[in-house]
Amino acid sequence: MSEKRIDVFREIVIVLVLSLILVSTFSIKTVNAQAEQVTLKPSDDTYADSSNPNSNYGEQNYLQITNYNSEINSAYESIVWLKFNLSSVPDEAVIDGATLQLRTSSVTGSFNVNAYSGSDFLNVSAIVSWTELTLTYSNMPSYNTTSMDSVLVATNNQWYNWSAVDAVRDALNSTARTVTIVSFDPSPHGLISSILFNSKEFSISDYAPTLTVHWSKVVPEFPSFLILPMFMIAALLAVIVYRKKHAKISGSP
Questions:
Q1: Does residue 156 surpass a pLDDT of 80?
Q2: Best CA proximity match to 213, nearest among 104, 121, 94, 118
Q3: What residues have CB less than 8 Å from 109, skipping those under 6 apart?
Q4: CB count, 10 Å around CB of 208?
Q5: What is the pTM of this model?
Q6: Which pLDDT value is given to residue 31?
Q7: Hey, CA dihedral for 192, 208, 132, 138, is it positive or negative?
Q8: Sign of the C-alpha dihedral, residues 244, 245, 250, 253?
Q9: What are the two backbone dihedrals, phi and then psi, of residue 171, each rounded to the nearest 5 degrees?
Q10: CATH node for 35-217
Q11: Rounded distance, CA 118 to CA 100, Å?
């Protein structure tokens, strides 16, 4: 074999090796590229009171939780409802944390406050989303009765945190861009026992409820079905180069 043909063969080998390296590089799966988070304030927050089932409390500067049950007096409860807009969370995000944060204004007694995932739609209509100015105890949406997290609340003017990752994941998996979180204590308390959390209407905006969502972005992997076609194209180019070089060698004196 002449030196010219040996050089052509070497060029073809180099082209194929570089093609394999290129294809292998693009086919590597890359995940968890960069962790990010966003802290949201509620678009709507209110509470529903069973003792006044048709009243709305969306403009109050506090969110009330009570649960009173007595054989002598009538039972009543009040439940906190919060809604957050998730439009700032990217579609490809993998949610690895979500924390609801509420600040107490007044606490009388101690409460095991639970956080639940709630529906965005009023129970009187499957297509009408609730707002802080329309929700009442009579029309409040349904909610998941399995608690996401439970926290003992017993101190005034203090921040408390609940994990709400299940609610956020469920909302994003259903392509919803909002998430509803419900908070209350399912255990009965005394007549004057209650919690008042600061709402988003509170005079100090930094005391408003927040939801911090943490995620890791996933870089879409190179589609595996393109690997074979890319290699075949690279091999074809190598053959074309070889034939051109071989033709020149064959035609030379």
A1: yes
A2: 94
A3: 154, 189, 190, 193, 194
A4: 19
A5: 0.74
A6: 47
A7: negative
A8: positive
A9: -65, -45
A10: 2.60.120
A11: 14
